[in-house]
Design goal:
heterotrimer, A: mainly alpha, Four Helix Bundle (Hemerythrin (Met), subunit A), two-stranded antiparallel sheet, 2 strands, C: mainly alpha, Helix Hairpins, 4 helices, elongated
């Protein structure tokens, strides 16, 4: 990324500034809703979308949606400002800005949607925009692969989620989240099990819980602002949002508690260890994000006020400091050309603002008082102590928090104050549009820590109430909660964290050795993809033979089976055959058609074939004449004539039907299929013509043709008056056929012309 | 084909067929005929001419390009449908204006959107089919 | 007569399918013409057949005089014939272009899009 965003690059552009302004305006708009929501209000807005399927584009804003909306738009505006400078001069910056803005809107839709199906659509939209953003450096194969991995994994989870939502609709009779949650717990519903599994699959893939975690570190192939925004502050929290959103209806059961606790806890501890093991600062941060997602999942397992308040406070503060840290790492990368923890050091002198911003964020992350991070940790510990599986939860939280303390030192202390290695560039301070984000977010972490009452009553408590489904007593967010177990755990955390930080070099080597022996998820994924390709090839070769006759044979055979099944198996066959009385005239026409058809099928000569087809066509026209359809008959005769002209022009310039001149070989298999299909169609037609007929439409046309449409030729009146729109479509088809032929012929002429040159 | 008889006869035949095609178009609302049949007949007339005198001559005699004629025809048909918007009726509702009276019994003749639509059909079928065949004749 | 026409339709279907399954693309086109004739007859016969009474309202009358042919299927068939012709013309052009660029009318040999050698090997690389 170092080659873009040079000092003199113009960074104020239409593409760069429009999203910033729009997103900022949205942020202000959502800020205006804070008083309403904080006082317990709810804002809804509904637009009918597919009324016949009962799908409405309904939006529902409560404390949880609002907290997410504020984070999405607030951090979004800062990240967009940052990326305008970060990617200034990049030839595809406009595209990037569009992707990022589309993502912002999708994410906003996701957290505001009330209808689960609308939520699903937005969910998938965030997946797609995320795919585009991860793969933004599309010239790099690794970037493409990682983007595809994220897409496949989260989209697969999305499909499971869709299935879960549909089951949810069956179980509750509504697709509106507000109504589903108002109906209370689904635990006694027989569909609860499948719904839980499917929804959790969606949430776990999106929020990268072990064993679906590996896409998230790989997603760091995206430009740094994307990592800060999507893969830390917003999108990956989509799964957490879903868990929180569905909390009132799905939580409280053993299955919920155990699954979330174990998956979340394992993810948290695993990710913390992996974070220590990384040397790339961005990868380190990626794993701490994973750790945060695990912790959040673990706390959402509970239903106590402390657990949920802790989760919400942690979610809020994590978005603030993690975005700030990612953005700071981006500045460091930008300024020095490297993100390696080993060489970075002593940058505080050259980059004082960055150092201060990263420092503030890191202090919040490490949970030092009076930062909001400290408060969130305290509340969470209180929640952990009261959890059902408290031993496991406390240990996991303790390990995760201690490791986070160490990581905070690695990413925000050592690069600025530690020993300096050999840097690719001489460091320099970042430009202000890039500094704005980390500084504001870092300061907010401190400000909200001191003014924690505001943070609690504006954002955290309304969100907690929304997750719990009832109004909680509140008052848990305090800087000083007295000498309690949580404070004690905090002290232990600091001591453990400090030890881990001091010994992290040695630990890293140890962890690297362990990792080398452990399962490699990424390699497993590659094997899975390779296997998928092999299966796809196998089944393609099986079905797609590339031979037209085989495709047609399969189509006709399936048609025959579809006709035969209801006739014979389901017993629909009813025949009442009276010996038809055939007049001489009819007999002649029938004989003409039979002779023509058989001759056309068996002849080896083009001229004979054309003549035989003409005989059939004229026979059919005769039927139309005899049975009162002069218009149709005239049309048929004219078209027959034109077909002969066409064939005379074209077919005679093509080779003989059978170049061997031995006459056509009889194909028994094809003849058998044709015979079977012919008999079936004849049977169906015999039944149709023997059955009753609904003449209501015809009666109407006959009665209204003259009295209402002033035409005596009913066929023509149908064409140009009663069913005009159909006719309009049909003449459009004639034009399309002519244009298609035109394009085919002209493109061939152009090709020939090029060859000549 | 360089037969003088064919060439000379084709001119007369074309004229007759064209007149007949318009006749079929106009009478179509009350008797067998209409835009489809008229258009096919009109196309046939020029195809006869093209066979007798060559496609270049036929195109010259037609003056406008058949593809263009078809496109304009589609536009005419669409306009016939849009007329109903002026009176607030649904799309493609037939509109009738009586000249010399106030109903079909007293009026001398009528101006109506239905015939306009049929003329559109005529032009589309005429132009579309003719362009297909002329193109094939020229390109192959 | 419906019985006779039903059997004729069956025959037309049978011969059309047989022709369409041939290797030569021109035969396939012949089959297509037969198939479209058969389909038109299906629509026509499904509306029942009334002999010698076109769907016209006599001059001076407000409604048809006695039983007349069913006008609805006729209108459907009329447009179907014209469209069928358009389809046929397009298919013919397609066939001719295929012949001109591939040098064959054998549909088994037309394998530009799906070559006989397995493309699998390339895909894996």
């Amino acid at each position: 990324m170092g080659e873009y965003g040079a000092k003199d690059a113009r960074w104020i552009s239409m593409a760069g500034m429009t999203p910033v302004i729009l997103t900022g305006a949205l942020f202000v708009y959502f800020c205006g809703m804070v008083p309403t929501i904080a006082s317990g209000g709810i804002i809804r807005h509904s637009i009918p979308w597919i009324p016949s399927l009962d799908i409405a584009l309904s939006f529902y804003i409560d404390g949880l949606s609002l907290m997410f909306s504020l984070l999405i738009t607030g951090i979004g505006a800062l990240v967009m400002l940052y990326s305008a400078r970060y990617l200034a001069g990049h030839p595809q910056f406009a595209r990037f800005a569009l992707y990022l803005f589309s993502f912002m809107l999708s994410m906003l839709g996701l957290v505001l949607a009330d209808n689960v199906l609308a939520l699903f659509v937005f969910w998938e939209l965030t997946t797609f925009t995320s795919y585009l953003l991860i793969g933004f450096s599309h010239a790099d194969p690794k970037s493409r692969r990682n983007a595809l991995q994220a897409l496949l994994l989260t989209a697969a989870g999305g499909l499971a989620l869709l299935a879960g939502f549909i089951l949810l609709g069956f179980a509750t009779g509504t697709y509106e989240l507000s109504e589903i949650n108002a109906a209370g717990s689904l635990a006694s519903n027989p569909l609860y099990g499948p719904i839980l599994v499917l929804v959790l699959l969606g949430a776990f893939t999106k929020s990268a819980q072990v064993p679906f975690h590996f896409w998230l570190p790989n997603a760091m192939a995206a430009p740094t602002p994307v990592s800060a925004y999507l893969h830390s502050a917003t999108m990956v929290k989509g799964g957490i949002y879903l868990l929180a959103r569905m909390h009132p209806s799905l939580s409280g059961t053993d299955a919920w508690i155990w699954t979330l606790t174990i998956f979340g806890g394992v993810t948290a501890v695993f990710a913390s260890l992996m974070a220590l093991r990384q040397t790339d600062l961005k990868q380190t941060l990626a794993y701490t994000t994973l750790m945060a997602l695990g912790t959040l999942t673990m706390f959402l397992a509970g239903s106590s006020g402390y657990a949920i308040t802790g989760a919400m406070a942690f979610l809020f503060v994590h978005s603030l400091y993690k975005a700030a840290l990612f953005l700071s790492v981006g500045i460091i990368d930008h300024a020095t050309g490297t993100r390696e923890a080993g060489v970075l050091g002593g940058l505080a002198g050259a980059m004082p603002v960055t150092a201060a911003a990263a420092g503030l964020a890191a202090l919040s992350m490490a949970g030092i008082p009076p930062f909001l991070g400290f408060i969130a940790k305290e509340v969470a510990y209180s929640g952990a102590v009261g959890a059902s599986l408290w031993g496991f939860v406390v240990l996991a939280a303790l390990a995760a928090n201690a490791l986070m303390f160490a990581v905070a030192g690695i990413v925000a202390f050592k690069p600025f104050f530690g020993p300096q290695g050999k840097l690719p560039h001489a460091p320099h301070e970042g430009p202000w549009p890039m500094l704005a984000g980390p500084v504001i977010l870092g300061v907010l972490g401190l400000a909200f820590g001191i003014l924690h009452g505001l943070a609690a009553s504006w954002v955290i408590e309304p969100a907690t109430n929304a997750v719990l489904g009832f109004t909680d007593s509140g008052g848990r967010v305090k800087l000083w909660a007295g000498f309690n177990l949580a404070l004690g755990l905090s002290v232990v955390t600091f001591i453990l964290g400090a030890i881990l930080y001091l010994r992290h070099q040695a630990l890293r080597d140890r962890l690297a050795a362990i990792e080398a022996r452990g399962p490699d998820f990424d390699a497993g994924w590659d094997r899975l993809m390779a296997w998928l390709v092999v299966v796809a090839e196998w089944q393609t070769r099986l079905i797609q033979t590339g031979v037209l006759r085989q495709y047609l044979f399969a189509t006709f055979a399936v048609t025959a089976v579809a006709l035969a099944l209801p006739l014979f198996w389901l017993g629909a066959l009813q025949l009442d055959l009276a010996m038809p009385s055939v007049t001489l005239r009819e007999g002649v026409v029938a004989a003409l058609i039979i002779a023509g058809a058989l001759l056309a099928a068996t002849t080896g000569s083009r001229i004979t074939g054309i003549a035989a087809l003409g005989v059939v066509g004229i026979g059919v026209a005769l039927i139309f004449i005899i049975y009162g359809a002069p218009d149709v008959a005239i049309t048929q005769l004219l078209v027959e004539m034109l077909i002969v002209v066409l064939i005379a022009i074209a077919a005679l310039r093509m080779p003989y039907l059978d170049p061997t001149d031995k006459g056509p070989a009889f194909r028994p298999r094809d003849a058998a299929l044709g015979g079977v299909l012919g008999v079936l169609v004849a049977l169906v037609m015999l039944m149709v013509t023997a059955g009753p007929i609904d003449r209501r439409l015809t009666d109407f046309f006959e009665a209204a043709s003259w009295t209402e449409a002033f035409g005596r030729n009913i066929v023509n009146v149908i064409l140009v008056d009663f069913r005009t729109l159909d006719t309009f479509g049909e003449i459009a088809v004639v034009i399309v056929a002519a244009l298609g032929a035109f394009a085919l012929l002209r493109s061939a002429r152009r090709d020939k012309g090029e060859e000549r040159e | 084909m360089n037969s003088i008889i064919v060439t000379a006869g084709a001119r007369i035949l074309v004229a007759l067929l064209l007149v007949f095609s318009v006749f079929m178009l106009l009478r179509g609302h009350n008797l067998p005929g209409g835009g489809f049949i008229g258009g096919l007949l009109g196309a046939t007339a020029f195809i006869v001419y093209a066979i007798a005198c060559g496609t270049a001559e036929a195109r010259k005699a037609l003056r406008v390009s058949p593809e263009g004629l078809a496109m304009v025809g589609l536009g005419v048909a669409l306009v016939a449908g849009l007329i109903s918007a002026l009176t607030g009726d649904p799309f493609f509702t037939g509109q009738w204006y009586w000249v010399g009276g106030d109903s079909y019994e007293t009026a001398a003749f009528s101006i109506n959107s239905v015939l306009v639509f049929d003329v559109g059909v005529y032009m589309v079928v005429f132009g579309g089919i003719l362009s297909l065949i002329l193109m094939l004749e020229e390109e192959l | 007569m419906e019985i006779v026409v039903s059997i004729l339709i069956g025959l037309l279907f049978a011969t059309a399918v047989y022709l369409m399954l041939a290797r030569n693309f021109l035969r396939f086109l012949f089959g297509l013409i037969l198939l479209s004739n058969a389909a038109n007859l299906v629509i026509f016969a499904a509306g029942r057949m009334t002999e010698g009474a076109p769907a016209l309202i006599p001059y001076g009358a407000l409604t048809p005089d006695g039983e007349i042919a069913n006008a609805l299927p006729q209108a459907l068939v009329l447009t179907a014939i014209v469209i069928g012709f358009g389809l046929f013309a397009f298919a013919l052009v397609l066939a001719f272009q295929a012949y001109r660029s591939l040098g064959t009318l054998d549909s088994d040999e037309m394998r530009v899009a799906e070559p006989r050698e397995e493309i699998a090997g390339e895909a894996r690389e």
